[in-house]
Each structure stands twice: as structure tokens, then as C-alpha cells.
Amino acid sequence: MRQQQATTVVPLPLAAVETRLRDVESWSQFLLGIESIKFTSFERYLFTLADGRDHREIKTVVKLRYKDHCFAWHPVSGSGVRGTLKLAPLDDRHTEVTLTVASMPPDLRAGVAEMMMPSSSTAQCDVRLLEKHLLESPAAGADPKAGTVTRT
Q1: CA neighbor of 101 nearest in space, from 116, 129, 117, 82
Q2: Which of 41, 57, 127, 144 is most buried, judging by how many CB atoms fall within 10 Å of its CB?
């Protein structure tokens, strides 16, 4: 399993960032390797992972831990991508976002290939895309839709 982490600061208040990230289906715009995300039921999503020619659909649970402002996701079973998006207010206008992603290879061949390939950090690219996503999109005032994460 390969784990990566990256942190950024966005010039938006915590509430605005949290509101925007509740639209889980938009996460494919900033998480590399995830082609699409589709809401299926309460806290359940179908992540489509695209790695070259390989496309896999992974049933995934996504939860917002409201107390510590953290979105956490993991596959329902088997291999896939798990991670967290932790939010921390720095002041009234800035929020620190820490992305941690761990990928689990689907089989032994993929696991061996992952160990042999040079390590590159996609998490750093992900947080840059996340910054762009948050700043280009309306962060507050959006109507909640069926595919948004609820507070727990």
C-alpha cells in the first residue's frame, strides 16, 4: 500500500470549504486516478478508478466527521483508494487542507509493479487541483443535492 500526504492553505473560510467539499461527486476533478464518482445511497458512492487501460468500479463509503472537520473514505470491501481530507481554520479567511491518500493494489502483480516503480507524489498535484477547484467554484450558497455528504 502506498500512502501520500500533502497540505495546502486556501483563502476561504472553513465553512465555505466544508460546504464545497460536501459535493463528493465533484472530487474526481481534483483526485488523480479517479475518473468519476457517483452517489448511490446514504454515504455510499461508486468511485471509478482509471489507471491507464484499467478501469475499476469501487463501492466506497464517504463520511464527514463534523467534530474534527474531516472527510474520510474507504472501499466497502477489497482493494481501492482510502483517504482523508482534514480541514483546519487558520483564521476567519483561511483554511488548511491536508489530503492523505492510500492506494491498495488490486492484485499481486499490481503490488509488485507499485514497489518497483519510482515513487511519485500525486497528492501534491491533487492539492493544487483542489485549490483551483475550490477557488473556481461557488463555495457557499449552493443548494444541497442528493449526492452530498451529511454531518455525522
Answers
A1: 82
A2: 127
Q: Is residue 119 part of a domain?
A: yes
In a domain, 9, yes or no: yes
Q: How far apart are CA 49 and CA 103, in angstroms?
A: 11
| CA 132 – CA 117 distance, rounded (Å) | 29
CA 124 to CA 7: how far, in whole Å?
A: 8
Separation between Cα atoms, residue 134 and residue 10, nearest integer Å:
8
Task: Establish if 148 belongs to a structural domain.
Answer: no
The per-residue pLDDT for 134 is 95
Q: Quick one: which H or E segment has residue 59?
A: strand 54-65
Backbone φ and ψ for 130, nearest 5 degrees, come out as -65, -45
Whether the Cβ atoms of residue 125 and residue 99 lie closer than 8 Å to each other: no
Strand partners, 98: 7, 86
Supply the pLDDT for residue 75: 95
pTM more than 0.90: no
Cell of 34: 479517479
CA dist list (Å): 85 to 40, 115, 116:
21, 25, 28
